[in-house]
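Predict the holo structure. Ligand: zinc ion.
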Amino acid sequence: MTIKDWTIGEIAKDLHAWLPPRRGWGMANCGLLVSSRTALWIDTPYDPAFARAFLDRSRRLLPEGVAIDRVVVTHANGDHFWGAGVVPDAEIITTREAREQICFEPSPQQQHALVNGSDPETPLGRYLRRHFGVFDWSGTEPVQPHTYFTGELELSVGEYPVHISSLPPAHTAGDLFVHLPAQRTVFTGDVVFASTSGHPGDHPVHWAGPLSNVIDSVERVLATGAEIFVPGHGPVLDRAGVRRHIRYLDYLRERSHALYAAGVPAGEAARRVIAEGTFPELELPERLVVTIGTEYRHLHGAAERPGILQLMTEVATLADELEA
Ligand SMILES: [Zn+2]
């Protein structure tokens, strides 16, 4: 896969989606809304090389004299955010909670050191290289949001209204979704990881939870009445596709609660749910160790999330086990 395999397509009037050619960690969707006076990005690619490619493609779609003036970031994970440095004059907008979350996430350069410096003989080192080795953050400076909010934020991009809503802790502690009523479209961020029959996706990974908040968030996305949904990852969905994703989340929540009630530890619960094979088309099943672990933490009343290194070690260990 190279950057030129990424595709950008007009999904509604003056609205373009930039979709990675394959699934996997960090392969996130981005949006471009164009007007005669100004333009907006919704999320950015993961590293500067991918972000510059998106910028080049975006510029070809902009009227003369129009620049990417603003970037709405759906949450503080780097795969939606760390490319913002390629538009240094743009206003970066996110939730107050996402802004606070940034200091708990690894910085781009820390992540680069982790991926390239971890021992390749360990499950973690192998896993990080395999899934993140395509990205280069060696020269990526962290970007700080300029504008942040909790609740609702209304913007306009030329003649087009943009409604932005913050969400309770779900995928992360600071998610938002972007509703473009004129385009009947929502960019959901990572409360939706999509798959369709032609485009199988990956199991979601949810860091904050609980799953009931993720499900409520997806219901709110549907309640906008929109017809087109661009998930954080995976193919563009219609309303039926979003409802299908809610059924996945319901299943995961039900199984987690039943296994918790039966006294099954979280790691074992993830392994059992994977063995049930209810969604065989989804890849990266090892991520269930994080999502089910998150749900268990809420059931248990524990507030602290384990560190990213511990979580990724659990993911890598499980991936090795599944491969064997
Ligand atoms: Zn993501």
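The chain has nine helices and twelve strands. The longest helix spans residues 239-261.
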